From TrEMBL:
Species assigned in the record: Tepidibacter thalassicus DSM 15285
Classification of source organism: Bacteria, Bacillati, Bacillota, Clostridia, Peptostreptococcales
Entry-linked InterPro entries: HNH, HNH_nuc
SMART domains given in the database record: HNHc
Cellular compartments per GO CC: cytosol
Full protein name: Putative HNH nuclease YajD
GO molecular function: endonuclease activity; hydrolase activity; nucleic acid binding; zinc ion binding
Keyword terms of this UniProt record: Endonuclease, Hydrolase, Nuclease
Amino acid sequence: MALKKTCACGKIIDYNQKYCKECEKKYEQERRESNKQYDRHVRYSKDNIKYSKFYHSAEWVKVRQVAIVRDHALCQDCLKENRITPYDTVHHIVPIKQDWDKRLDVDNLVCLCESCHQKRHKELK
């Protein structure tokens, strides 16, 4: 018998799924809109061209992949609380705006789910 769990909407889903099909569509739409807003107002603003180029560089793609493999594509903050959650973001522990030299340091990277990523950013403010 396959393991089951409850989706955020209350539907029963397979354990290896994150959301039911309806919630997945809704989540992806919200994520795309959020990313579009973030890109428009933060990532690609005139002040952030340097960072934009970095996040599209071959070096970033490679070091990001190393962090994902190292962290087994799981949120490390959730794992510390005995929860298994797939990662959504590779996060710079020391932000690159604070220390540009650590941008490609794999020890400065951690895989996080969206919720934990938001918590980390709130702590920085």
